[in-house]
């Protein structure tokens, strides 16, 4: 067994390759826009279901409209970013994926926490989200630094 693995250092040489981060920042922005559109499209059939539920419950079901957007987004992120490909549909289209620095796969909970921290960071620190990527190693965003994750190109 490798001495680095025995000492707990499981760094992946592929994650240390500079080519894995070329164009990642731009690809992340376009992937976000694609994913935003996908979530908006997914909200249409769910909104129809909530509307029908509201009719059946004499208006009580319409209370779900208040959480419709976040609920659809969380389910989408859980199933895509937390899935086998470790990437949302937008990320897959742009050729990037989320990876953990410790080498373990991204699970649904980490995927949701990653997205929630991204949105919370945008609400509180809008310009810092992308500015951090200019100075951080591996072009990592603030929420990547907090969670020990990195976005890499999936084609390299």
Walk me through what this model shows.
With 156 residues, this protein is mostly helical. The chain has one domain (20-153). It has helices spanning 3-6, 13-16, 24-56, 68-80, 89-94, 108-135, 142-147; strands at 96-100, 149-153. It has a two-stranded antiparallel ribbon with strand order 1-2. Helix 3 (24-56) crosses helix 4 (68-80) and helix 4 (68-80) crosses helix 6 (108-135). Mean pLDDT is 89; it is low at 1-10. InterPro entries: RDD. It comes from Pseudaminobacter soli (ex Zhang et al. 2022). Keywords: Membrane, Transmembrane, Transmembrane helix. Its main location: membrane. It is found in: Membrane.
Task: Give the arrangement of secondary structure elements.
Elements (H helix, E strand, L loop, with lengths): L2 H4 L6 H4 L7 H33 L11 H13 L8 H6 L1 E5 L7 H28 L6 H6 L1 E5 L3
Antiparallel strand pairs: 1-2
Helix pairs in contact: 3-4, 4-6
Helices, by number, come to 7
Can you tell me the overall shape? elongated
From the N-terminal CA to the C-terminal CA, the straight-line distance is 26 Å
Strand arrangement, largest sheet?
1-2
- Poorly predicted runs are 1-10
Helix content: 55-70%
> How many strands, which pairing sense, and closed or not: the largest β-sheet?
2 strands, antiparallel
**N-to-C order of helices and strands:** HHHHHEHHE
Would you tell me the structural class of the helices and strands?
A: mainly alpha
Number of strands: 2
**Average of pLDDT:** 89
Count of the domains: 1
